Amino acid sequence: MKRKVFISYSYQDKAFVEWLYKNLKHSDIDIWYDSAELQLGDSIKDKISEGIQSCSTFIVVLSNSSKSSKWVGYELNSALLLSAIKKGIRIIPLKIDDSPVPSDLSRFLYVDFYLDKEKGLQLIKNALSKPINTNFEFQDWQDFDWRKFENLVFDLLTEEGFNVSRTPKTRDGGYDFIARIKSSLDYDEKILVETKFYKNQKISIDILRNLYGLSHIENASKVLLVTNSELTNASKEFLSRSTPNIIVWEGHELISKIFASTSITQKYFQVQPPVESKTLKIVDHELQKVQSLIKRLDECPQGNLGWKEYENVCIDILNYLFVPPLGEPKIQSRRESGIDVRDAIYPNRNANENWRFIREDYDAKYVVFEFKNYSNEGCDIDKQTVLQIDDYLKKTIGRFGIVCSRKEANQSGLEKRKDIFIEHNKLVLFLTNDHLREMLLRKHKKMDPSDVIIDMIDDFNLKF
């Protein structure tokens, strides 16, 4: 049975993709890319959807060109949504120039062809040669508690060749296990292992700082943090900047390791028998809802033509993401540049941890959202935009607001945000379409989408 691989790319990178196709095409891999698959008269979207749904590995070629490619965006969104439910699908980003890795893919390990093309080719060949346990269907961590998660990590490390010993219960020094393994220079490496099992929380910088200190106190070669969750953006930056001796297995990487182990999946998870019928389809209504919202967001016209439509889809997305825990929004109408625009004000009275933090830190009895459907060539998210939302943030409302837009804020907008934070302790966040997509994916994976907002607050505070 051939393994099916889908390659998503910008047409400006076609020369690289044809080189990759030539070097990867062999008897064990069936590669789908449009130049080889599309025929005259085919429905492009139908053929692409068919290709993605049938693949076991999705490769996306990252470049400065792919950032602005609508087709790459469409294909990537489809693959990310399918990876949330499909058994064993892998997403492998390939970086071919100096463009940054998009936020949607920051949790995936990428292969770097930019620094060394031949080494990148060997790494992708190795990745594609690894088997996927297609009998295992990961749903969520609902049946786990911290003890069961700790036992899973212990067994997984043992299976990967580590000599693992538990920390005595009377001496919890900030880590759970000591793992030892022979290094390439044939000496015993001592690795401290800490497990973090969270239902609705990301890994903060404080946790990484504690582990960094532990590695020096305990004279360990490395510290391994294993979690079902993920790092905040600020934690990722801290990790890349100052802690080369800390290794983190985030949820996505941990699940990949679980997929590769039949014994672990049989012991800790539900193993699905192979489905013989190729006509059986599982209808995931939540996935369909998320796909529909992302499609509406992606296809919304820019500028004045799509202003009302952009407001509608943003409000529908926010309602789907946050109501509850937030209350039903109160819609305010006003005139701006000859256009009737609307703002949404959400009551914030729930005990949800993230929204309670926002209510207490910013006196946010309500959360104000403004919507700006500026075109790429049109107005910017500037200081005037920030001043408009600043006017809303009165004592009876609170000191926290969010601007939703397809565009990032420009320098004047960022500077004005700093000004009102210094003068009035009001915080304004800029939520892009990428953030909305990320939150929709988190919602579908039964993770708290408001973690993205908390992550942005942490990022602002640490960089202020």
Q: How large is the radius of gyration? A: 24 Å
CATH architecture of the largest domain: 3-Layer(aba) Sandwich
Estimate percent helicity: 40-55%
CATH topology of the largest domain: Restriction Endonuclease
Let me know the number of strands: 15
- Give the biggest sheet: 5 strands, parallel
Percent in strands: 15-25%
Task: Tell me what the structure shows.
- It is a single chain.
- With 464 residues, this protein is an alpha/beta fold.
- It folds into three domains: 3-129, Rossmann fold, CATH 3.40.50; 146-268, Trna Endonuclease, Chain: A, domain 1 (3-Layer(aba) Sandwich), CATH 3.40.1350; 286-463, Restriction Endonuclease (3-Layer(aba) Sandwich), CATH 3.40.91.
- Helices cover 42% and strands 19% of the residues.
- It contains 17 helices and 15 strands.
- It has helices spanning 14-24, 34-37, 44-54, 70-83, 117-129, 146-159, 205-217, 233-242, 251-259, 262-268, 285-299, 307-322, 353-362, 383-392, 411-424, 433-444, 451-463; strands spanning 3-8, 29-32, 57-62, 90-95, 111-112, 163-166, 177-182, 188-196, 222-227, 246-249, 330-336, 339-347, 366-372, 400-405, 427-431.
- It has a five-stranded parallel beta sheet with strand order 2-1-3-4-5, sandwiched between helices.
- Mean pLDDT is 79; it is low at 36-43 and 273-282.
